[in-house]
Each structure stands twice: as C-alpha cells, then as structure tokens.
Design goal:
Strand content of chain A: 35-45%
Radius of gyration of chain A: 17 Å
Mean pLDDT of chain B: 95
Shape of chain B: globular
Largest sheet of chain A: 4 strands, antiparallel
Structural class of chain A: alpha+beta
Order of helices and strands of chain B: HHHHHHHHHHHHEEEHHH
CATH architecture of chain A: 2-Layer Sandwich
Distance between the termini of chain A: 8 Å
CATH topology of chain A: Alpha-Beta Plaits
CATH class of chain A: Alpha Beta
Number of strands of chain A: 6
Mean pLDDT of chain A: 93
Strand content of chain B: under 5%
Shape of chain A: elongated
Number of domains of chain B: 1
Low-confidence stretches of chain A: none
Oligomer: heterodimer
Number of helices of chain A: 2
C-alpha cells in the first residue's frame, strides 16, 4: 500500500473529493493546514497597517491505497486540484508498511 | 418624582452596564488569542471593583458638597439618599460610567500588563483621577462647569480623561515585545463586531440617559447618538477604501466607536444635522489619528488614544462651533439657571462668539494635564513597587495561561492528567 498525501487549495477540495470517488477511493482524511511555497503569503490590512501573513491556509488530503491504484489516484488529485495558477499545491506518495481496519482486524489490501 | 424619568434612568443604567462587556469583546477580538481572556478579565474587573467603590465613597466625592474642586463625604456609604426621589437611581447609573472609564484604558496596555498591577490601578485611578475630573465637569459647583464649558455625557470627563491616562500608562509600561516590526493582527474580527454592536446599543443609555429624564433632550441625544455613529462609521470606511483599497470590518467598527465618542460630549447641545457633521468629522479625523502611534513610537496597542482621546477632543471642541440652544440641552447664559437648566454660550456657527470654544479648549486642556500627571505618577509608583509589566516568559507564552491559568480556545476537549 501507499500513503498518498496532497496539499491543495481549499476551494478545490470538493473537486478532488469527487475525482477520488470517481476512481473508486473509498475513504480519505482531510486536515486544514497552513504553510507556504513559491506562492508566499498574503497581506491583510487592519486600521491602515499592513500585516504580512506568511502562512497560507491549505487543505491536506490523505488516503491509503493499493499499489496498483497509485497512478490513477495521483492523476485524479492533480486533475481535481489544478487551476494552473501558483499555489496549486503538491502530491506525494510514501510507502505504507501495514494497514489494519480496526473494526474487523483485516489487514493490508483487504483493509484499504 | 416622575416615574417615567425614574424608569428611564434605571433602564439606562442597565444599558451602560452592558457597554463594559461590549468593550471587552471589542478589545478582546483585537488582541492575540493567547491574551483574550486577560483582556476580558481587565474589563470585567472594573465591573467588580468600581460599583462598590462608587457606592462607598466615589459618588459622594464626585457629587456632594458645594466646593469648586472636590466633593465631601456627606453621602459616603450612600448615607442620606432619598429613595423617594431620583438620586439613588442616578447614583447607580453613574456607577456604570465610573466602571467603563478605567476599562477604556485596558486597550492601550493590552498584551503586557501584570494583572495584579491592573487590579490595584483601577480603584486608585478612579479615586485620584476620575472622581476629581468628574466633579469639575459635572458637579453642580464644579469649577469647569461654572466657567461655562459643556460636556453632556462625558467627552472630557470620560473619553479625553481615559485617553490621556492611557498615554501616561504606556509611556511607563513600554512597548510590546517586537512592536512595531512584529505584531499580530486581530485574532477574531467577529468578536470585534459583536462588541461594537453591544457598545452602540449601550451608548443610547450613556448619552440619552445622561439627561436623567425622559424628555425632548433625551430624544435629541438619542437621535444624535444614532446619526453620529452611522456617519462616522461610513466616513472611516470611505477613508480606508480610498487610502488602503478596501472597506474593512475593523474600519467600520472603529468609525462607529469614534463617532459615538465624538458625539458623547455634544449630544444634548447640538441638533441632528450637526450630529451628522460631528460624527463624520470624528470618524475622518480618528481614521488618521491612529497613525500617530507609528509616527511618535508609542505602543497604544488598540488605539485608545487615536479613538478616545482624539475623538473626545474633536467632539468637545466642536461643541464650540455647533452648540445650539434649539437642541434644548442648555440655555444661553452662564452657569446654572434658576430652573436648573445649564447655561452657556452659543456655538460659533449658531450666533455665538468664540467664548464657548475657548471654554471647551480650556476644560479639555485642564483635564488632560491633570489626568496625565496623576496617572503617570500612579504608574511610576506601581512600577517601582509591584511592577507593571509581566515577565518575558508570560508575554511570549500568553497572559491567559500565565496570569489566569485559563485557555480561551481549544480545538478539542482536553482531558486532565
């Protein structure tokens, strides 16, 4: 199995979720995160004073999938999240050694 | 005794009481999330200490006797008050004014003042600064009032007074760590807007209640309070749109409060269209006055000086231009008339000379010098004894957890170990 992690723009989350459902992904975890990449931060103005906000709100999407599904899941995320503008985010894949479904005790690909 | 008047004053006391929690939210939203409880506590503290102090001795010193400078102890412990008349209701109504005045200062000292020092500062400042200035401005024989200056609901006695005191406090207290290079924006704008709404609501009691009667002057003050706040909020918002590019919530909130401050001294002495002008001028002037702290390098954290001192001065000085006996709050003349109605000159725009303007400037100058000197002395003594400032560790980790052992927000329920 592989753990797929993606950092995306928050407003693309719905698109990514639908794209993942369309390729058969049955579960995912979403976290609100903050960070910066080449996009950098933004400025906010309060009483005329500018505040440079370094960290931009993003959404982290995580799903564990079978090895055979990795390519199409990654493609689905890229398609769903892309706006062709700076700050679209990243997707990466890491090996997952063991997966257990807590309710049944099923392991690995059976637990995906 | 008129039961309508009595009912109105009691209702207004409750309205003005509500302003202090409103102020707490207004300020609380603007500080960092690690200091919001400290800010709320500084405000609520004023509601604990001041009403009792006021009933025991403050009211008597501020309103009894026939001296020119300070009252006496004749009504200490609320002795001799006639519950068949208006006075007990007036006392408790004014207790809410005495409570919110030191609370205004909390916005300037935000994020870095030791709570124990604040706890002691509040009653001392109330007795040594608020009570005398109130006597001069509002007591029947107070010398500033006798001279012919006007302050309907507390522009000089409350906003200018507290604004100058805020300046004296932060000059002793020092700037926040990292200011002005590294500061955080408001942690919760919705709290700020909620606080603004509560303040606006309560301010009807503050201004229209200060007539101490349910009559035409109260109606004029009520309407003026509404119009001035609206004009000021709009004006500040337009300044920001032109200057900074956006209409901001904080700009609107600040403008509303600036307009309320500016109309406070004038609300019973000017007619409705003058109130719109005073509000608009107050909003515009204060929207620039908040830049003074960057220029002169004093860390007035939440702009108490830019909004309350400057707004109070604008409103108070504009009385010299806009005061009009047609608003019924006073009659032409000097001192207090035989019918009890306050007398003063007309404003420059309404047939008077510069006499009233001179009195307004003088009254505010006196209040500012007195408030600054005494507050500075109190701050110095507190700093030398218990210390005004929290430790570096407390300032960095947050006053909520270090000073109060509480946390405002948590994303999940926390189990105890």
């Amino acid at each position: 199995m592989k753990l797929i992690t993606a950092i995306i723009k928050p407003f693309r989350l719905d698109n990514v979720k639908e794209a993942l459902k369309a390729v058969g992904v049955e579960g995912l975890t979403v976290t609100e995160v903050q960070g910066f990449g080449r996009q950098g931060g933004h400025t906010e103005t309060y009483r005329g004073a500018e505040y440079k906000i370094d960290f931009v709100p993003k959404v982290k999407v995580e799903a564990v999938v079978s090895d055979s599904d990795v390519e199409q899941v990654v493609d689905a995320i890229v398609t769903g999240a892309r706006t062709d503008k700076i700050g679209d985010g990243k997707v990466w894949v890491t090996p997952a050694e063991l997966l257990v479904r807590i309710r049944t005790g099923e392991r690995d690909d059976d637990a995906v | 005794m008129d039961s309508g008047n009595l009912a109105w004053v009691l209702v207004c006391a409750a309205l003005v009481l509500f302003m202090t929690p409103g102020l707490a939210f207004f300020y609380g939203g603007m500080v960092r999330s690690k200091n919001v409880l400290n800010m709320l506590m500084m405000n609520f503290w004023c509601l604990l200490v001041i009403p009792v102090l006021w009933a025991v001795v403050g009211y008597s010193l501020a309103f009894s006797g026939d001296g020119a400078v300070i009252g006496n102890f004749d009504k200490a412990f609320m002795r001799g008050l006639d519950f068949g008349g208006m006075e007990p209701a007036v006392l408790i109504f004014l207790a809410t004014f005495a409570s919110i005045t030191p609370a205004l200062i909390s916005g300037a000292v935000a994020d870095r003042m030791k709570f124990s020092a604040w706890a002691i500062f509040v009653p001392i400042w109330s007795l040594l600064v608020y009570v005398p200035v109130t006597y001069w401005v509002f007591a029947p024989n107070g010398w500033l009032r006798e001279r012919g200056s006007l302050d309907f609901a507390g522009g000089t006695a409350i906003h200018v007074n507290a604004g100058v005191a805020a300046l004296a406090m932060i000059l002793v207290l020092g700037k926040r760590r990292g200011w002005p290079e590294k500061v955080s924006p408001p942690h919760s704008m919705p709290l700020v807007m909620l606080g603004t709404g509560i303040l606006w609501f309560g301010w009807f009691g503050f201004n229209a209640g200060s007539e101490l009667a349910a009559d035409g002057v109260a109606v004029q003050a009520f309407i003026n309070t509404f119009l001035a706040a609206a004009a000021a909020g709009g004006c500040w918002a337009f300044v920001e749109r032109l200057r900074d590019g956006h209409f901001t919530n904080l700009g609107v909130a600040s403008g509303i409060v600036a307009g309320l401050v500016a109309i406070t001294p004038a609300c019973g002495f000017v007619t409705s269209m003058s109130a719109v002008a005073i509000g608009a001028i107050g909003g515009a002037v204060c929207s620039f006055a908040i830049g003074l702290k960057q220029k002169f390098r004093f860390d007035d954290a939440l702009d108490v000086i830019g909004v309350h001192l400057v707004g109070g001065l604008v409103g108070s000085v504009l009385i010299g231009f806009f005061a009009d006996p047609a608003a019924l709050g006073y009659a032409p003349g000097k001192g207090v008339g035989a019918d009890g109605l306050l007398q003063a000159e007309q404003g420059l725009f309404f047939g008077g000379g510069a006499g009233l303007l001179v009195e307004q400037v003088l009254a505010n100058a006196v209040a500012m010098v007195f408030s600054f000197v005494v507050t500075y002395a109190i701050a110095k003594v507190l700093d030398a004894t218990i210390g005004l400032r929290v430790s570096e560790e407390t300032e960095v980790e947050g006053l909520d957890i270090k000073e109060h052992a509480e946390t405002a927000y948590s994303s999940m329920d926390r189990s105890t170990i």
